[in-house]
Amino acid sequence: MTDNGPTEQDHLTAKQTKEEFDKWQRQDEVQQIRATGSLGSTLGSTDGFYTLKELMAHTFPPPRWAVEGVLPDGLTLLGGRPKIGKSWLVLNLALAVASGGKALGSIDVEQGTALFVALEDHPRRLQQRIRMLLGDEVPAGDFIVRHEWRPISKDGGGIDDFRDFITKHPETRLVVIDTLQHVRPSGNSNRIYGDDYDALIPLQRCAAETGVSFVVVHHLNKLSDPEDWLDSISGSTGLTGACDTVIGIFRDRGRPDAVLKGTGREIDEYEYALNLKGGLWTLLGPADEWRTSTARAEIVKAVREHGEPMSPKEVSDILDKSPGAVRKLMAQMSRDGDLNSTGDGRYTLTNPGNFGNSVTPDNPSTVTELPLLPTLRGEGDSKNPPKSHSSEDNVLDLTAIAEALDAELIPNGGTE
Fold it and tell me: Cα separation of 207 and 196, whole Å?
């Protein structure tokens, strides 16, 4: 026992498991944040000023994740086009947090209360969606739903309602708002940036003060291929500027695979490949590796179906791809042992009946390796990602439950 309270050794001596201690420690940290707005000793004097010496001597706690590598604490804006699967994605994440299971099929998460503010769904539709994912099994933990919420403006009452909820449910780890348009205050069209910024900054401060991860679902604009993907978020840069993290989900409608892009103040940028099947989003791996695997699989399929040696030009004509890119990739595949060079500029398959463990176009949900997750800045590097929270043996595994479901089971119009 120290002046600052029980130590880790005190809890271990009391036969408390490491997981129980970590949970106790997090609860203690969250209580400090909610009581003082910060964690640890106050930086500087009470007048708000501090010196460089005080700053450099201060010990800050490590940032926390709601879903490690994907969703840090703070305010996150999730953008995507209509009917692309945004609501399915946040529902997947919220159920994983509530159950303490696996998010996106492979990421262990810490169990906690999840508040799901479903402003575009009614109870019957939400029940249908959850049954698609879980069957009739109800996971352990608190998954709490509300279908209406007051505006999140300074005087709209919505922020106070969130604070009250978190006070009553101190185990809250995740709050989902689907969608922003239903809770944002009306603004003045003459100050678009200011209105957008003012719409979210109260929520950002609430997330920071409570130590809870807030996710707000939003839409993309009609820009087809902006130079910076953040420019595809509907609205001005006031929205993205007010958030701690911005996530975008991109896919062609009707295709099962998508790319999840994320950036923020406290995290390194990431791009993940995802797959949607039966309402379940599954993490496939880093997007660049997924693109390469898919391109390799398309080449193998073309050569296999042709039945004779093929040149890169012949393959590029069939796939409607850049001849130069196909030539480089086929040469690399030859060096890797996936193709044999015939010596006249053409290639055959090394093993026509097998292409290793690669992802194929006919089997987009195959996962060969778990991805390297990005780190919060100041927390190592991408080659040594932070350890995931281990889950209980009996927690709900969403992947196992939804494994037999097919994407065709999703009702028409129900892919949002």
Answer: 17
pTM of the model: 0.70
Phi-psi region of 74 (alpha: psi -120 to 50; beta: other; left: phi over 0): left
Give the model's pLDDT for residue 23: 56
Query: Which residues share a beta bridge with 363?
Result: 360
Q: What angle do CA 113, 117, 121 make, to 5 degrees?
A: 130
CA distance 65 to 67: 5
Q: What is the DSSP-derived secondary structure letter of residue 220?
A: B
Neighbour tally for 275: CB within 10 Å: 23
Under a CB-based contact definition with an 8 Å cutoff, are residues 245 and 396 in contact?
Answer: no
Find how far residue 264's CA is from the centre of its chain: 12
**Contact present, 266 and 380 (Cβ < 8 Å):** no
Average pLDDT, the chain: 79
Q: Which residues of 199-221 are buried (b: 16+ CB within 10 A; e: fewer)?
A: bbbbbbebbbbbbbbbbbbbbbe
pLDDT tens-place string over residues 316-336: 999 998 999 999 999 988 988
16-22's contacts with Cβ under 8 Å and 24+ in sequence apart are 19/390, 22/389
Q: What are phi and psi of 313, to 5 degrees?
A: -65, -40
The count of residues in the chain is: 416
Q: C-alpha angle 164/165/169, rounded to 5°?
A: 120
Determine the longest span between alpha carbons in the chain, in angstroms.
Answer: 78
Three-state SS for 397?
Answer: coil
Looking at per-residue confidence, does 53 or 13 come out higher? 53
- 179: cis peptide before it, omega within 30°? yes
> Measured between alpha carbons, how far is residue 198 from residues 45, 183, 187, 191 in Å?
29, 13, 9, 10
Taking only the tens place, the pLDDT of each residue in 242-268 is 999 999 999 866 666 899 999 999 888
Instruction: Please give the Cα distance from 169 to 72 (Å, whole number).
Output: 20
Cα separation, 139 vs 123, whole angstroms:
18
